[in-house]
Amino acid sequence: MYLGRAHQSLGEMERAIDLFSQVVASLPGDRAREHLGLPVLPAVFARSYLAECLSETGQFGEALRLAGESISLAEERKHPDTSFWAYRGAGVAHLLRGDAERATELLEQALEVCRRHDLPVYLSSITADLGLAYTQLEDVEQGLTLLQQAVEGASAGNQLYAHLLLDLGEGHLSAHHLRETRDVAEAARALAVERGERAREARALALLGDVARLENDGAAESLYRAAVTIAEAVGLRPLVSRCLLGLGLARRHRGQEADAQASLGEAARLFREMEMVTWLGRAEEALRAGG
Fold first, then answer.
1. Which of 13, 102, 190, 227 could form a disulfide with 205 if both were Cys (CB 3.0 to 4.6 A apart)?
2. 289: three-class secondary structure by DSSP
3. What class, spelled out in words, does domain 170-291 have in CATH?
4. Do domains 1-121 and 170-291 have the same CATH topology?
5. Overall pTM > 0.85
């Protein structure tokens, strides 16, 4: 399981999915209810991370099915660590799909488990997840507060990871804090490159592309293209789609309407295939705006 987490961090999604799938397959029936000497049910922990990896690659149907199984197992066992991972995995899957409302419900349950059962080791991660969900629900002030708390807590414990900085960057972007977004995204990119975390590097480049686009900076297209190159290599279809949406909007700002419509149309096609309804709505709105 822990090897799977390492491959996920490195952006090696195919290998991570394979490893987590092996764990799930090795624990059928009653074995899924055994701790095997670990502080969390392996069957739930593996499903949680497998759901996240599948969501990052756009396989939301299977991700949500596994997340549902994870919650069922956790609610049967009523074990705090196990419940945390079940709710967190399901919440992140919905968050990556763009369903912030359902994600918020699940992530709030995960945070409540942490607080009720004194599980501080998980606080920075779940606080960042929930903060990002709040910003997507347009509760930007509360979301940013949680995101900043997450980064500060992780920094104090020498546990600062690129994905926490990226969550904070997306929160700042929702608040239209472009300078802060750029600063955080650049820090996240440097950290991701240093640690060889390609998926997080791609996400940082996409975030920098968003900033450049909103500033009408010509660098937006090259940043989005760099993000797409990495994201395609590691299989991050939702991120590719989001970059194509941003690329289309950037091209429209530069008066390249035909190219803009092509990028937006491809983004809409991918969002439709992955059933990312919220993001599909944004792409279709952008297409209509071009007439």
1. 227
2. helix
3. mainly alpha
4. yes
5. yes
